[in-house]
Amino acid sequence: MEFASSLLLLNPGVYILRHPKTGTVPLSVARAPGSPKNNGTLEVIGTPGTDRTILRDGGDCLVMHVAGAPVELLVTAYINKPGTAVPALRVDKVALDDAAPVPAEPASRAAAPAAAKGGAQPIQIPAHGVSVIGHMERRGDLVATDGELLGEPQANLRLEGFQVMWPDRPQGADLAYNIAVEGIGALPVVKTGKFCGTRGQARRITEATFSLVGPQAREFTLEGTAYFTGGFQVPVESGQPLGGPSGLEHLTALSLNVVKSKAKAKPASNPWDASPRTKVFKSKTGSATAVKTATRTPPVKKAASKSSPVKAVTAKAAPKKTAATPTRASKAVKAPARASKAVKAPAKSSTKAVKVVKKK
Fold it and tell me: Does the predicted model carry a pTM greater than 0.90?
């Protein structure tokens, strides 16, 4: 059996915790030994069979009353088979007071397509930059501009859907995005100006992905942060899925902006890399020395060549060794030494031959 756990932070208030659907793995909800600051009073009421901690199917729920200070909960999923999907715990906050009215936007902003139905007034957005229109639980449609925060991370309210507006979007660049919704799964990818999510269905967003697309996408950079229940914050990066550590957390707030990429400074040129070829210069002093050494070969005596036939044969063989032009200085220097030995050898034999003639 495997376990998947995550932390859930509840602020003072009344909450209803539900299992998402029947036929999935059970969930255990218990108080976590977290920070001393989260020492609020917790009262729990559960449906029959839950023991006030276990949610096995869609008919189970827990009602929690948090007072005095926040409370941190540990949510654990018990997985029997490896690879089984972890269900996302549903957390709904009971509204004890009327929801605060949405502040009106300045009239100087450019009009955007209406994000709500039923003849609602269109939301105003600036004519420049990136704006995010989101549908919040119990708040309706809200708008955030220039990287502002859409939603309240500490309230744990659901951000159920959103659309990105980019009125002055340059040619060759666009922003694509999609989400994963509880009970539905991944929704199709849409681009700027299109709504992605749900309204009025009380469904939670458990994952979101933003990507810069187009031939000029490299000229821009995504900035922002996605906030999930449990106090998790994930920085926005192009093409990277954003979500909580276990997939049980839902999206509560979002900040998003697109900025121009900073130009990278070119590295300083290296003078050693100016030419891809290396020139090698060879010295001629060695060959000149070899020529001079070769010319120092002692001359052959004429008298020895006339008196002895052996001398004549040796004298003919000696020039072959000394006449060759040396290719290297080292070999050219050694060649004359061998020739000198060959010349001296017949000299001894020639003197002996002369002495023998005189005895006769």
Answer: no
